[in-house]
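pasting for ref
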Amino acid sequence: MDLKKHLVSVVVPAYNQPLYLRAALQSVVDQDYRPIEVIVSDDCSPITLKSVADEFLRFQDDSFKVRYFRSATNRGVIDNFRYAVGQAVGAYLVPLPHDNCFVDQRFFTEAVQIISGGRNCHLCYGNALYEKSDRRALNIPDSISFSGGWAVLEGRDFIRLYRRGGMDWSQAMMLDNVMAHSLGAYDEPYVVNGAIAKRLGVSQDDMFSYVFLLSAMGSVGLCEKPVCEIGTPPESYSRSAAWITTKARVKFFIFYNIWRSDIQGPYAADVKQMALRQALQYADRILDRRMGAYYGWHPLFFLMCGFGLVKSAWSTVRYAFKRGVNLIRPNTFKKTRRL
């Protein structure tokens, strides 16, 4: 198979942080795979990023392109990502936050080989390291057998590990872009875009919903070795007060919508079951008229609210009980703070 027939689009939603962006783009240049197009979407940064993108024009040829876009206004993290995705024309898509960079030069080559290898695979997911740390993003169980650093799991098995098995999450991935578009994976109701965020009074996010939707459609390539470094600048979106204070409602929104979706893949039932379990974890945070109005006060939403009230009441009673016991016998329960 001629791998060079398969264009990889690397979308880089960016805001400030020119040093991080330069490292991210260099790590794409260093990949041994071609052809690649890189799409840098500058979300109206006070520090313009065009000069950084222009540095990489010298690498352009028939198999490597760099395209830079700058928004006239600040769209927000997800709308900026969605804009960049809208410019991508590759069969495969690599989301690359501008503060991340790849550390494995063969990740693209190996991921394309797996996705295009006739195994009904639509997603490759890699391990990662956190910046200035030896901590890995994924806690992969020893029971998984790898060959050449990779294993191909059925979608149901990957989802069980990803959200229910404690494997955690990573930002290193390659998507079947054609399949993701056909599933509407970048759009409402699977993401909280700017319009929804304003309507619900929450932050923008997507919770990597495309990971769940693509897992429902077939197998997933899992790479145990770290292929990416996750940057941790103090100004990162995940550390913002807006995200921290509204993330529970954002998570409920996305998982609830995945559960109610009509995806038809071979592992759709497994993904929907996972989504319901996740939505129920945040059901005590959705007693909000804006959320109810969004769903038209649907009976299922009322049911979720009822579950949330029970969960909240139980948490309050359990918290009070633990504090009471600790007053009599200190340190019987070490965790008494409600989250």
